[in-house]
Amino acid sequence: MLRHHLVRLATGARAFSQASAAAARAPHATKSKAQPGASTLRQFLEARGLLAPAPADARPGAPASAAQRRARLPSAKAKALALESRALREQVASQGDEAPAPAPAVPTDLPEIAALATARSYDLDALVRSGRLPRGWQWLEDREALYVPAPPASSDALGMGSAFLFRAGCYVAWGMAPEQKAALHRDVIAGVEELPYDVAGDEAMEFVHLPAEPTRVVGDLVVVGQPSREWAGRARADASTQLLRARLAISQGLAASARLSVQEAVLAQYLRSVSLMPEQLEQNGKVPLPRRALIRKMGTLLRLRQHLNLDRDNFLDDPELYWDNSHMEALYRHTCEALDIRPRIESLNAKLNHCEHLLEVLRALLTEESSHRMELIIIYLIAFEVGMALVSHEYVPTPLAVWHALPSLT
């Protein structure tokens, strides 16, 4: 039986070699007329009945589709691949459908959007009651902001020479001259400032009016034009109201940057006050601050962190107005991206973490020093108690006992 199988195997191998040679002599044969030499040895032997067929799932099949490959990946990687392929398809489709629009011509001398953070907050209700607002003002964003034409009020439909006042203690002036901004702060805002800053925070961007272009942020330039087609199709307000909302979103991004610059200045001053402590600790070998001063430093640090991350007007949360207005949210976020709001917040938090670690080390050293002093006091008390016990039990003669013992010795 074994000999019979060996003979069949040898015969099959010889036939395979002959077929391979024939296939080599006919290189231009089509696939439909290809000899067995074009297949693998295993397929040839299976066709001749000399080898048992392999299971179907073990045979090599066609390459898996993209969806099947992503199904075998972890969910995060699969999602990244799906987003990447989707972005690529959209990019190819957009390139095939329409050519990129030419860059608009921009004049060299451009007006400015200036944001100034002068106080912790503004009492806008008191400002409205005071009657100091110029004509044409209006509430915006659920009474969280005021739109104010500059004194004297401009008749320009684009709102040139106007300002937005925010409860968070910042105002943003569009196209106003320096004397107009000074008059606005002196005559309108100064009386309603709560906890004014010693040094105001500021931020500025240039803007240009291009009626044929959509309103957007391009780098460090704000293009004021028409609303986007998507927003114009869904919004029911007129073009002037839509443009006012777009400028409000951009103004809030600038206001956030101005308020953040105040926090950066305060933290820079705080860092200067603690920057020499490691060197003093190295030179003197003792904590350079008493306990009360160290606790006050920690309180200042916690206040800075709370105002940056947890307060009502913190820098991490988007305004609630944009939750149901994607176009305003996009303008606000593009403005924040142009002004590097997120990296600056991360940098501030990293510096706060460093200061917190430094103060924790100093506090631990003070605690250790206090514990060492308490240990010494306890040791002194124990030694005193032992000495008193020795004297009271007359293990150590007192001078009075020696005096009484002298007559008996003589």
Automatic annotation (TrEMBL):
Q: Which InterPro entries has this protein been placed in?
A: DUF155, RMD1/Sad1-interacting
Q: Which domain of life is it from?
A: Eukaryota
Biological process terms from the Gene Ontology for this record are: positive regulation of mitochondrial translation
One GO cellular-component annotation of the UniProt record comes to: mitochondrion
Among the Pfam families in the record, one is DUF155
Residue span, DUF155 domain: 164-349
Family of this protein? Belongs to the RMD1/sif2 family.
PANTHER family found in the cross-reference section: REQUIRED FOR MEIOTIC NUCLEAR DIVISION PROTEIN 1 HOMOLOG
Q: What is this protein called?
A: DUF155 domain-containing protein
